[in-house]
Amino acid sequence: MTTFALALALLTGTSFTVDPGASTARYRIVHKLHEVTATSARLEGKAVLQPEGRVITQLRVPVASFDSGDRNRDVHMQEVLESAAFPFVVFKGAGALPAGPPGAPVQLRLAGELEFHGVKRPLDVALEVELRPDGTARARGAFEVSLEAHRVERPSLLFVKVEDACRVEFDLLLRGDGSAPTAPPRPLQAGSPAH
């Protein structure tokens, strides 16, 4: 039995939880004059590995948690995204985890739905998954989302709007039932910026 098959057999039926202390989501929007990247480490999510390698997952990120390093820009993005009315970006998906060579990451495609700015749209996400012997899994991937398709009024600078495509990248550490979490992210203080 290969290392991957053994890990899959041991972890089948396992529920995994995103470790926010070791996971990030990042978005990038492009304007003619510059690019903006913002990162969140306040992810919440679960994945369940079912028999035969089927994976069901849900991930959500608070809109107000993204930090670009410019508080004014972040507040403006929260206004544009109407974070008070639509506080989370949510992805739900499912796919089949293929077998791979021992100790190597495998490619997984999740067919799912992205809820962003109150609009739900189908979305397929390709990611690389590494099941580890310690009961954790690392998942990395990226996708692009259309701002206009989600009814987001694209921000502008000097009368020029940002591009419609927003690139989203994620790097998740998932802990299986019984594995110890890393240090939790620092809690929000009243009046402090969301990171």
Task: Give me the secondary-structure topology.
Layout: H1 3-11, E1 15-18, E2 24-30, E3 35-40, E4 44-49, E5 54-62, H2 71-80, E6 88-96, E7 106-116, E8 119-131, E9 136-146, E10 156-157, E11 160-161, E12 165-176
Antiparallel strand pairs: 1-4, 1-12, 2-3, 2-12, 4-5, 5-6, 6-7, 7-8, 8-9, 9-12, 10-11
Quick one: overall form? elongated
**What is the element string, with H for helices and E for strands?**
HEEEEEHEEEEEEE
| Helix-strand category | mainly beta
By oligomeric state, this entry counts as single chain
Radius of gyration: 18 Å
Strand order of the largest sheet: 1-4-5-6-7-8-9-12
Number of separate strands: 12
Distance between the termini: 43 Å
Task: Write structural notes for this entry.
The chain has 195 residues and is mainly beta. It has helices at residues 3-11, 71-80, and strands at 15-18, 24-30, 35-40, 44-49, 54-62, 88-96, 106-116, 119-131, 136-146, 156-157, 160-161, 165-176. The strands form two sheets. It has an eight-stranded antiparallel barrel with strand order 1-4-5-6-7-8-9-12. The longest helix has 10 residues, at 71-80. It is elongated, with a radius of gyration of 18 Å.
